[in-house]
Backbone:
């Protein structure tokens, strides 16, 4: 059973202990020293500036001394490779190679010109065919538009004639007094066939009401019995 709802007659008391003034941790001094660059971080603490290129070359030399197989290829091997690619006797046949290259270039340009001419002729033929087809389609479109316009105009004329005839007939036969031979029927009233017509029939007073000192022979009793009992 809980005693949270009951009053505390003897509350807890704290002990008196000797302690100095208490301060919050955030009130204590912090960051009392400035951070400075140390040796090797590129600051004033470095004894001398670093020569990165010299260090790289020195590291490469040490690596190649340990691994002779990974040494760089000599610079004199490139002209030999170019000489092998050129092949022997190229100096004497330089003019022949130039003439051969010229003839090859001329043949290629001639083939390109022929292909371009054929493509241009084909494109011109296709364009002419497309123009002919477009002209034919335009003529068909104009013909269809003309037929539709004629049909619409004819329909409008027929509608106008029919409307004129209807108007003339309405004017001639609209007044029944001007047409004696026409059988005219009297219009029915709007309340001829409604359910609430003649609801007060039979309730008219037929004479002067008489006072009868008998509830069974009074007019009210008679109406009540005829309406709800008989």
Residues:
């Amino acid at each position: 059973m809980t005693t949270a709802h009951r009053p505390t007659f003897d509350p807890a008391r704290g002990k008196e202990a000797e302690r100095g003034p208490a301060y919050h941790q955030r009130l204590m001094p912090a960051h009392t020293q400035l951070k400075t660059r140390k040796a090797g971080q590129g600051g004033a603490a470095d004894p001398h500036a670093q020569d990165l290129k010299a260090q790289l070359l020195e590291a490469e030399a040490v690596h190649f001394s340990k691994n002779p197989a990974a040494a760089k290829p000599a610079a004199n091997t490139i002209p030999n490779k170019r000489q092998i690619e050129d092949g022997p006797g190229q100096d004497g046949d330089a003019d022949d190679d130039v003439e051969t290259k010229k003839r090859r270039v001329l043949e290629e340009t001639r083939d390109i010109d022929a292909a371009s001419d054929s493509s241009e002729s084909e494109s011109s033929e296709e364009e002419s065919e497309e123009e002919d087809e477009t002209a034919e389609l335009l003529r068909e479109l104009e013909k269809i538009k003309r037929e539709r316009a004629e049909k619409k105009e004819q329909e409008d004329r027929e509608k106008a004639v029919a409307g004129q005839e209807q108007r003339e007939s309405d004017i001639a036969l609209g007044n029944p007094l001007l047409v004696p031979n026409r059988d005219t029927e009297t219009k029915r009233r709007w309340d001829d066939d409604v359910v609430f017509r003649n609801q007060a029939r039979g309730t008219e007073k037929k004479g002067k009401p008489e006072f009868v000192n008998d509830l069974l022979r009074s007019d009210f009793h008679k109406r009540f019995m005829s309406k709800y009992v008989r």
About this structure: Residues 16 and 22 are 15 Å apart (CA to CA). The chain has a mean pLDDT of 77.
